[in-house]
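Action item from last meeting closed. Structure (484 res):
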């Protein structure tokens, strides 16, 4: 258990050290009014407490990523622990913090608008397409996964289609109603359930003395799937996820003060990493090796692993509560995925969302498309989701790097992880069967060349942006403090 405990400790230390450094580099302004006050509309913009925002953020970004991803990543062995720690501290948490804080400085803007401002107007259209695609895939995947878990939990006594229908009904309400009506009221309780269930599994591992394997860079995958770049796409939300860039503006519009950003954005990514560590350890420990885990996954997917781990470690009642905690994750990310999609489309076409009917005109087509996508094979959806997810993360990191470059600050904290994942994203799509199906050698060469070209374009654009003195934040000098 030395590797496991060491990684947990490193994640916590990372929050108090590197997280503090990233905050210092960005330069928070506690006296600057946030969009929760300057654009308050009591629908999407309204102030909420730090604790409430933190729990909502954790649920928004989590989904099944820090559970299903690490379970699948466990097939590669303890090296999965390494990516969770390094990815969280130096990539995922930086990504989430910069996305959230830059959004706060710019009217709570979503990623497409930020990309347009800092990477060029063409990127606005590209990122809009990517973001909507990603959010539709997320929303659809996060209808299927909780529905299958609930179906399994109820021994198939309730029809799967009926469960999906109820989840869609909830999503419609959470997408259309003001953020404080459902999300603001229920999510703190759901967040507590999530944390308790993860802690329960972690304590269960310790009490039972489950043999958590120690660090090894050997590829344990039974099918000998290549460790690189697949590990970075298998464990996504548990280390780095572009989906988070679509979620943080929800909370950037409800954050009361910039000084709360490290806890809300950086801290909740670290919390997600700890959850990922627990589930990866459980998957590695309870199935008699990676062959047994592979057999369980083949028989029932990650949902079956969750159910087996929960009941084995916590008994029937505790296991049921733990599974419910896992069910909450995708549901509380699926609803905000649709909400984000609505907000992004509204911002893109400049369609105000104060009126309920205005929200309805955008939401109904989104849900219609998603219902059609539920008929597509889950494994195919998951592969496209992973690639779109990490591609979006790369764009968000380059937005952060551009912002810091223009501000003449240490932009390498975003550029280095962004460049690394850019190579992985290009290599993956060149090699994968859902992409071009090229050989791994050709794909690596293509990934390196493609990354060099795009990074060169980034520096050319960055120098131009700095010379043109692109404003880093919205001008709120005329804001009337009395509205707060």
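Sequence:
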């Amino acid at each position: 258990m030395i590797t496991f405990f060491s990684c947990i400790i490193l994640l916590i230390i990372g929050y108090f050290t590197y997280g503090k450094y990233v905050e210092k580099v960005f330069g928070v302004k506690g006296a600057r009014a946030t969009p929760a006050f300057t654009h308050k509309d009591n629908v999407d913009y309204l102030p909420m407490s730090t604790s409430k925002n933190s729990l909502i953020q954790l649920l928004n970004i989590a989904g099944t990523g820090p559970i299903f991803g690490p379970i699948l990543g466990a097939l590669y062995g303890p090296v999965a622990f390494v990516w969770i720690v390094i990815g969280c501290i130096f990539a995922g948490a930086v990504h989430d913090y910069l996305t959230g804080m830059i959004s706060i400085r710019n009217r709570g803007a979503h990623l497409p608008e930020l990309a347009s401002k800092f990477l060029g107007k063409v990127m606005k259209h590209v990122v809009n397409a990517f973001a909507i695609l990603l959010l539709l895939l997320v929303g659809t995947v996060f209808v299927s996964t909780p529905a299958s878990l609930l179906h399994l939990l109820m021994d198939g006594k309730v029809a799967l289609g009926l469960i999906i229908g109820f989840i869609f009904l909830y999503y419609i309400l959470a997408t259309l109603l003001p953020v404080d009506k459902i999300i603001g009221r229920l999510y703190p309780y759901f967040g507590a359930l999530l944390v308790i269930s993860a802690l329960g599994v972690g304590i269960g591992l310790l009490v039972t003395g489950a043999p958590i394997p120690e660090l090894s860079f050997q590829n344990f995958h039974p099918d000998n799937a290549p460790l690189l770049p697949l590990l970075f796409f298998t464990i996504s939300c548990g280390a780095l996820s572009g989906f988070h860039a679509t979620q943080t503006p929800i909370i950037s519009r409800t954050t009361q003060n910039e000084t709360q950003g490290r806890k809300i954005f950086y801290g909740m990514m670290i919390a997600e990493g700890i959850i990922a560590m627990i589930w990866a350890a459980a998957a590695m420990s309870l199935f008699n090796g990676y062959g047994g885990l592979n057999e369980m996954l083949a028989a029932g997917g990650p949902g079956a692993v969750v159910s087996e781990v929960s009941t084995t470690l916590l008994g029937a009642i505790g296991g049921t509560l733990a599974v419910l905690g896992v069910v909450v994750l995708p549901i509380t990310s699926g609803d905000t995925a649709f909400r984000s999609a609505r907000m992004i489309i509204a911002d893109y076409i400049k369609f105000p969302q104060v009126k309920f009917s205005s929200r309805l005109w955008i939401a109904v087509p989104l849900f219609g498309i998603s219902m059609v996508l539920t008929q597509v094979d889950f494994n195919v959806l998951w592969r496209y989701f992973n690639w779109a997810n990490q591609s979006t993360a790369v764009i968000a990191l380059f937005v952060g790097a551009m912002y810091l470059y223009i501000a003449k600050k240490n932009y390498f904290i975003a550029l280095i992880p962004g460049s690394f994942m850019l190579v992985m994203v290009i290599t993956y799509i060149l090699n994968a069967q859902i992409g071009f199906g090229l050989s791994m050698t050709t794909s690596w060469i293509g990934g390196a060349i493609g990354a060099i070209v795009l990074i060169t374009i980034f520096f050319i654009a960055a120098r131009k942006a700095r010379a043109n003195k692109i404003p880093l934040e919205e001008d709120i000098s005329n804001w009337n403090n009395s509205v707060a």
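Note appended to the action item: The mean pLDDT is 87.
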